[in-house]
Design brief:
Blueprint lengths: L2 E7 L12 H18 L3 H6 L5 H9 L10 H11 L16 H7 L4 H18 L17 H13 L11 H8 L12 E4 L3 E2 L8 E7 L8 E2 L1 E2 L3 E9 L5 H5 L18
Parallel strand pairs: 1-7
Antiparallel strand pairs: 1-2, 3-6, 4-5, 4-7
Helix pairs in contact: 1-3, 4-7, 6-7
């Protein structure tokens, strides 16, 4: 008779801060965005883009040439007003809950991914040359343009290190393939076996795998093989930290332009 081991994580949860793959994160993040648009009177905007279901929205968000436009621009033009809004000091804390980013932030949903996105966006914008520091145009800030933030979020999901522009930095290429919490190796929640099972090593972007425990406690005994029905718990240690706004941004010398005005492509 076959036996079964259930795989779980200490201090982490699948589809809360861990994801089966990048596509799984995309489906949950953009699927949630679709639900948010519907809940905020966005049906007419969905219809205007020939979208009548969540799957059609996901297909639209994943299509580089959606709507007959290039570079995921159609997603930005169609739905940026639901995604984020410019605010006084351009901080995520001040995003209102009637925007998707504000709703996620203030309800502590996908917090780790949002934190990563707040650094990925300026990395991408600086690579593109959109940010000029002499004079400073604030284009490294996600909340200067809701259109740009949504478009670049879509690019994060559409591209990887092999398909991104050749001139992008190693940092951006690394980010595209290593969104924190995305499981990089095939993973199953449960494994059936006959006599004895050697527990798998797992790879999670942004983390170091420290081994399996017999209880949901890092001080509990570690185990490498199992012979009976049981549940084991993976210990992960965070390695990749993204803190553009806490450290890197503060080291950039900016020349402020007293005549600067926000320009939103949308």
């Amino acid at each position: 008779m076959s036996k079964k081991v259930v795989l779980k994580f200490i201090d982490h949860e699948i589809r809360k801060d861990l994801w089966y793959c990048k596509k799984d994160l995309f489906n949950n993040f953009m699927g949630g965005f679709y639900d948010f648009i519907l809940d905020h009177n966005g049906l007419e905007d969905l219809k205007a883009n020939n979208i009548s279901s969540k799957q059609e929205f996901l297909d639209f968000a994943a299509d580089w040439y959606a709507g007959g436009k290039d570079s995921c621009y159609a997603l930005g033009f169609g739905f940026h007003k639901y995604y984020a809004t410019p605010n006084g000091d351009y901080r995520i804390e001040n995003q209102p809950t009637d925007t998707y980013i504000g709703y996620l932030y203030h309800n502590n949903i996908m917090s780790d991914f949002l934190n990563f996105l707040m650094s990925f966006f300026p990395y991408w914008r600086n690579d593109e040359g959109c940010t000029r520091f002499d004079p400073y145009n604030k284009c490294d800030n996600p909340f200067v343009s809701s259109w740009a933030l949504l478009v670049d979020t879509a690019k994060l999901f559409c591209l990887d290190s092999d398909t991104v522009y050749w001139w992008q930095s190693f940092r951006v290429k690394y980010c595209l393939d290593h969104i924190p919490g995305v499981i990089l190796k095939e993973y199953q929640d449960e494994i059936e076996f006959d006599n004895e099972l050697v527990l798998p090593n797992i790879r999670v972007a942004g983390y170091k795998f420290e081994g399996w425990h017999i209880a949901n406690d890092k001080t509990s005994e570690k185990v490498e093989t199992v012979k009976e029905d049981c549940t084991v718990y993976a210990e992960l240690t965070r390695m990749d930290i993204y803190n553009y706004w806490e450290k890197e941004e503060k080291t950039i010398k900016k020349v402020e332009d007293p005549n600067w005005k926000r320009v939103d492509p949308a």
